[in-house]
Amino acid sequence: MQRRNNQLTGAFGEEVVCEYLKVHHAEIIERNWRIREGEIDIIAMYPSGIFTFVEVKTRSTVAFGHPLEAITREKAHRMGRLALGWLATHGCLGCDYQIDVAAVMIAPDGSHSIDYRAAVL
Amino acid sequence: MSLAHTQSVALLGLDGHVVTVEVDIADGLPMYVLLGLPDAALSESRDRVRSAIVNCGEKWPNRKVTVSLSPAWLPKSGSSFDLAICIALLSAHETISAEAIADIVFLGELSLDGRIRAVRGVLPALIAAQKAGVKTAVVPSANYQEAQLMQGIEIIAMEHVKQVLRWLRTGEREIADEFDLQWQPFDDTLDFADVAGQPQARLAAEIAAAGGHHILLIGPPGAGKTMIAERIPTILPSLSIAQALEVAAVHSIAGLFTNRSPTSLLAPIVSPHHTTTRVAMVGGGAHVIKPGACSLAHNGVLFIDEAPECPAGVLDSLRQPLEAGTITIARSIGNITFPAQFLLVLAANPCPCGKFSGRGRNCTCTSQQVRRYLGRLSGPLMDRIDMRVQVDPVGRVDMARTDLGETSAAIRLRVIAARSVAEVRFADYNWKLNSQIPSRALRTVFQPERAGMNFLHDELDKERITARGLHKIIRVAWTLADMHGHAIPTLNDVEQAHILRGGVEL
Prior knowledge:
heterodimer, A: alpha+beta, Trna Endonuclease, Chain: A, domain 1, 2 helices, 5 strands, 32% helix, globular, B: alpha/beta, Ribosomal Protein S5, domain 2, Rossmann fold, 3 domains, four-stranded mixed sheet, elongated
């Protein structure tokens, strides 16, 4: 039950971030691209032509610290590898790209806030 | 603005370097990067600073925090940067004005709840800060007394990070009670009056104090060697303020103010155990180089009991500081020089069982053991010892006497008088004590009376003394002359010095 809840929370967070990207004129290319090594939450492209890979962390409580603290060095490296993997399989190796992270915090009353950080790696 | 800087001090031996602590808070994943060659204790500052900030009710920036300690090439160690990092970080996080902290030196280790803990080396750090033109320094309350020795810099003692923040934000602070900065000249717990009898050893101690001569006391257990050695600081003139500051700085680096007050003007006495190592004796250490016993005894007395029991090499490591008055320790992080001008007092039993004295009736050692025992003290070291004195067991006559011996205060007056005579004589030279007269000067300007010189030359011809021994005897003779009021050493002074040197057999 708990697991289901967390998945719903995660899906909600990704939805929020997609809306945020659209507001900022980015085009969503793909969502939840998954290979054996892991998953990229959102792949988008800005009008400037830069591929953007977004990792979304959603939390409904701050008991476990800031959501972005959950991204360890190892996870960050995996995001880099996944991004290259996506570019390779889509014939875009060598294109400009960046990796963004977004933290979505859901308050007990259902309101949410977003902490978006561009080009963190 | 997400950039701020403040200052702290890195210590390399006694030399302090003012370090700029810069903190940059940038967008990015939450991360903490510490630059500037930190050691393990300093790298752990991240967790102490973070807990302290959170537990003081402040916000930890969940962004990329870069802390840079410059100059970057200088290796930095220890926990004394915690407070500076914490304050710069909060300023970069825009909770304190950056101008307010830019020119202040912060020293202190943080506990997880935000209290500021004492650190080593506050005094040398402040000396370096003052030289660099710093006007204000924040130090842990526990180090306040030591910090107050430093004149010409505003010292602010703080107990808790919250107090520091309140002061930086509002300008309000509780003024810590100023310690009554009284230099304490003498300590009357030890006194020469306690020593029964021992006229020869008393005299030798007085000469040692007056001329700065190193001595070896030889005697059976219980005769009073340790008692006499422990009381030598009480007959030395009290330290000048400059000397006291030097001593306080060395003790501060070693973190040893637990048993010596920083405001004491009494000459220090350090008595390392005979199992001590070379590093403990001269100083050293892998990451943080600490002064050894010979530097802690700077301007005071280094007393080594049971000297022949010391492992080979430990005593000999003292030869260089005995000559130079300083000790230079070379390690990968650099060469560090500590002062080491001390009066060396060695004590030894006459033989392994300790009873070979007087008629030696109770001694159970073979004659070879007796001969070997003092032979463990190496020749080159013995050559640097000016006086070798027999301390005989106290007899019933001395113990039964109810009138006490001379007090330390009375002896000290004579020591000070003798020293001032020497000081006047050496006004044009760069040494102050008879033990420091260079051998060249002994053969030219500072010769004893002709009769005395002839006596010494005869002894030299008979190979009873070495050339170095001859110089040592003349130096002691000068001290005796000062004490007896002779303008130059007489034959009598020279003969007495020769006897104190230990004559032929040792």
